[in-house]
Amino acid sequence: MDKSYQTYYVPEQSPWPIIGAVAMFLIAVGAGLTVMQLEKESSSGAWVLFSGIVALIAMIVGWFRHVIDESMSGLYSAQMDRSFRQGMGWFIFSEVMFFAAFFGALFYVRMFAVPWLGGSSNNLMTNEVLWPQFEAVWPLLVTPSGDVTQAMPWHGLPLTNTIILLTSSVTLHFAHTAIERDERQKLKAFLGLTILLGLVFLGFQVEEYVHAYMELGLKLDSGIYGNTFFMLTGFHGMHVTLGALMLLVVWLRVMKGHLDSNQHFAFQAAAWYWHFVDVVWLCLFVFVYVL
Question: Which parts pass through the membrane (predicted)?
Fold first, then answer.
């Protein structure tokens, strides 16, 4: 029998999972309260959100440090490495299903709900009763209450961000090639450049949101178009932030002399996730901005 299957490191009980769960709960509640209190003087939601973010950062730093110490101590076997790969694979699969649900909602709205409201498929009565003046076009720029907004064009910042994110996948591939060849300087340079491009992407997305709110009148309450736009782009931005954080941790480890051509799954896991985020953005760019 392969000896790698004879030993399997089982870590001691850890407080980090429950801390992470509490942090995510505080972030969810805080984000909801913050949105509800945008036009009010109360700021309790912002404090709840901030406390959740602080707890999440503490959890990430502590848990990452714990796992890195275990890895550098030689506690992980080949079987443990296979378990990490399977775990990361299932995690990315769950993320695929996460975004599939939101893209499915967008598809349902555009292909079914909007035409039905417009009176198609023998739903003329629905149109006459619910919204007689409704026109079945996408994007919907007029809400039932009469609020008017503008659509976010695909050129400009969205196109620039697409180019930036695709370029970051290329630089990450070069970094992957460098670590497999133990070319440390190239690895540091290309990995650092990938992280920088990710941060630039996030900065441009913030600028895009400001433009949407201030100049286009595109907000969370701008009907189904505004809802789907911010839901998809917002969740993607959160995933880019997580991916950039993972790459940053890997880059810091590389700077400390960790990881080499024989043992670098931490790099591979972060790279898998980053490429996944890039693919999601391509789908998002096509179905949210272009079509």
Answer: 16-35, 47-68, 88-109, 187-204, 224-252, 272-290
- Provide the whole-model pTM: 0.83
150-158 contacts: CB < 8 A, separation 24 or more?
Answer: 150/216, 150/217, 150/218, 151/216, 151/218, 151/225, 152/208, 152/212, 152/216, 152/218, 152/229, 152/289, 153/289, 154/285, 154/289, 154/290, 157/204, 157/205, 157/207, 157/208, 157/211, 158/208, 158/285, 158/289
CA distances from 147 to 203, 225, 236 (A): 29, 12, 27
pLDDT of residue 284: 92
| pLDDT at residue 185 in the model | 92
Q: Per-domain residue ranges for the chain?
A: 1-76, 83-290
pLDDT of residue 1: 45
Residue ranges of the chain with pLDDT lower than 50? 1, 4
Integer Cα distance of 166 and 279 in angstroms: 9
